[in-house]
Design goal:
This protein is about 25% helix and about 20% strand. The protein has about 290 residues and is an alpha+beta fold. The radius of gyration is 32 Å and the shape is elongated.
């Protein structure tokens, strides 16, 4: 009897024919509850949509409304190799042809004909500022030409192998883009310098590879990032923007030895690495040029 009563109780809970209740509620009661939750969730969805609409009105399609102030832009090299290590044997083409191909791919947008077609011939040694006219947006903004021929011996034009075949390789350096940054003060443009990187060899002993590094050549001269390529207005505003580059050619680096190199950007309003990021504004990499001669 107990089992039968329990079974009947469950049946009556799901549907009571005497009170016409389903799961303890009448149809009108269920209707009111569903109506309440429908109105409640419509209100929440509307509130969320309104909030998103108001927030989107504060955004600019071409420039971040809020931007972390990057006082020191990052740097990168091309070709970058594995773990920023470039190693090859001069006599074996297969060991360095991938570096040459990487440079060809990287520099193809900088071909002189492409730059002349897409970009503007700017006046050098001064910022190329393109302000908006009140509410009238000056978009798309023009970009200055950076022709690969500027890199001379490291352009891949006069030497299509970028010096890799004779043990005098070229490394190309670029600065990360920072919207609105004017990386100079009093007309002094930023420039790149490279040297031997210090590394630890003992508990309190440091050394470097200055004696192995040899002579360096910079292209453009003095490793300068010309002011006309700044400020950068963003990917959408400057669709054809070409980052300025600096190339370093290693003329007589010691063969069959690891050489630790560090390059950094120098400017009178760009601080060097800080406690949060000691490598800001600089990059370290390793070169090893082997030769069987």
């Amino acid at each position: 009897m107990a089992k039968e009563d329990k079974k009947n109780a469950w049946k009556e809970f799901f549907w009571n024919p005497r009170t016409r209740e389903f799961c303890g509620r009448t149809a009108s009661s269920w209707g009111l509850i569903l109506l309440f939750y429908l109105a409640f969730y419509i209100f929440l969805a509307g509130l969320f949509a309104l909030t998103m609409y108001v927030m989107l009105q504060t955004l600019d399609d071409h420039r971040p409304t809020y931007q972390d102030r990057l006082s020191t832009p990052g740097m990168m090299i091309r070709p970058k190799g594995e773990q920023l290590e470039i190693a090859y044997t001069v006599e074996y083409t297969e060991t360095w042809e991938r570096y040459v191909q990487a440079l060809n791919n990287f520099l193809s947008p900088y071909n002189d004909t492409v730059q002349a077609q897409k970009n503007y011939e700017c006046k050098p040694d001064q910022y190329f500022i393109q302000e908006d006219s009140g509410s009238l947006k000056n978009f798309p903004k023009r970009s200055c030409q950076f022709k690969r021929s500027i890199l001379e011996e490291c352009s891949g034009i006069t030497d299509r192998l970028y010096g890799y075949s004779d043990g005098k390789p070229c490394i190309i350096i670029k600065l990360n883009r920072v919207i609105g940054q004017l990386p100079a003060k009093d007309g002094q443009p930023p420039y790149v310098t490279c040297g031997a990187k210090k590394y630890k060899v003992g508990k309190d002993e440091w050394t470097d590879d200055t004696d192995k590094l040899g002579e360096l050549l910079y292209f453009p001269p003095n490793g300068t990032f010309n002011l006309m390529y700044y400020p950068y207005y963003g990917k959408k505003a400057q669709v054809n923007y070409s980052q300025p580059l600096v190339a370093i050619k290693f003329l007589n680096i010691t063969k069959n030895e690891d050489v630790n190199v560090e390059c950094k950007v120098n400017a009178n309003n760009i601080p060097q690495g800080n406690e949060r990021d000691k490598f800001a504004g600089r990059i370290s990499f390793k070169l090893r040029i082997n030769s069987i001669d």
